[in-house]
Amino acid sequence: MAAKRRAKAEIPKQILNAIHRVWPDGIVETGCDLIEDSYFHELHPQLYRSLSSIKGASLRYERGANEQQPCEDDWDSRWSDSPPIDDNTYSYHLFFICPDDKLFRYTDETEEPDEEDPEEEETIAGEGFIGCVVGVSLLARFAVVGLNCYHEYESGSHTCPDLEICAWSEDGNRLTADQYFRSQMGEEGMRLLYNLRNRIVQVLKSHRITVLSEQDQQRAVPWLRLARKSSRKKDRLR
After folding, report:
1. How far, in Å, CA of 164 to CA of 94, rounded?
2. Considering the domain boundaries, does residue 58 fall inside one?
3. Are strands 167-168 and 174-175 parallel, antiparallel or unpaired?
């Protein structure tokens, strides 16, 4: 009990109030009402225009909270405009924005089933982009901004960037996004990425969305429990 009180005391009041409002019983679950009644739907058009208008950068990817992505081995599968709330529901809307400078682009390739012989694979050329991934919570006016990459291929397929990057050093140690991209792009590249990230943060703040610091993202919330039905799902909670 003392650990729970200490954890609550360490969490900023704005975040703590939002947790109590969304999950008053201390049970974490996301349902149709939280997603469909979110403040975000009305805000989205304005936020989209603001993020798309950042000078020297492009909004290359967007994923809704309840958007089902096609599987890697089934690129032709598609959902309707209103997919069901299911195991792949997210509690945040995601954007990927990258600088227009060629420094943040690179060639890439992937293996996909051959159209004429599905048992065989063919190499598909593509392009990679390094930039900022933005996750805007539908549950409360909070967001996280991080660094990641995104890929598009000539077949029309693409990767789905996440809020965190999984990268490892040659000696097997986990790297942070900053460490990984600094090793790839150097200090000048990181300076430009930080500049883009700062501009994204300012856009979010102009729409009254608070950007969580890395420290606040990692704070423990030991009094929260997963709902039994949610424990069988793969809900992505932020």
Report:
1. 12
2. yes
3. antiparallel
Q: Is the confidence at residue 235, as pLDDT, over 90?
A: no
86 — pLDDT class (breaks 50, 70, 90): very low
Tell me if residue 103 falls in helix, strand or coil: helix
pLDDT at 114: 78
**Number of domains making up the chain:** 1
Decide if 140 is inside a domain: yes
Look at residue 167 in the predicted model and tell me its pLDDT: 86
Q: Say if 15 falls within a structural domain.
A: no
Residue with tokens 């040659």: 170
**Mean of the per-residue pLDDT values of the chain:** 84
